[in-house]
Design brief:
The chain folds into two domains: about 60 residues, no CATH class; about 40 residues, no CATH class. It has three helices and three strands, in the order H-E-E-E-H-H. It has a three-stranded antiparallel sheet with strand order 1-2-3. Strand 2 and strand 3 form a beta hairpin. The longest helix is centred in the middle third of the chain and has 10 residues. The mean pLDDT is about 85. It binds zinc ion (ZN). The site of zinc ion (ZN) has 7 residues, from loops.
Length: about 100
């Protein structure tokens, strides 16, 4: 556990780990946004973002969805275009840098 109940590591528990490995599960981890959500069975790819683990109750880190778009805008990259760098398609773009920004800011 972190200082305010936020998880230090992900997945937070074995049950969540199992859920993320199983593609038939309802739980979706969106690495680039650092979001965990529940799949909406509407035939599309809709996801309801959740902030707590349904099994162990851990609080997930805050979503980086806004930061993701801001960072691409800062680099003049169209987030809907084909020019999005590969590190922005998963957690690499924020690994190490966002947390240190936040801690020092
Ligand atoms: Zn958990």
């Amino acid at each position: 556990m972190g200082h305010d109940g936020e998880i230090d590591a992900f997945p937070c528990c074995a049950r969540m780990g199992d859920a993320l490995r199983d593609e038939d599960e309802m739980i979706i981890w969106t690495a680039k946004f650092r979001e965990i959500g529940i799949r909406v069975p509407d035939g599309g790819d809709s996801v309801v973002v959740i902030q707590f683990c349904p099994w162990c109750g851990s609080r997930f880190p805050e979503t980086l969805r806004n930061e993701w778009f801001n960072e691409l805008e800062r680099r003049n990259i169209d987030p809907c275009g084909s020019g999005v760098p590969p590190e922005f398609l998963d957690e690499r773009w924020y690994a190490g840098q966002v947390e240190s920004h936040r801690l020092s800011g």
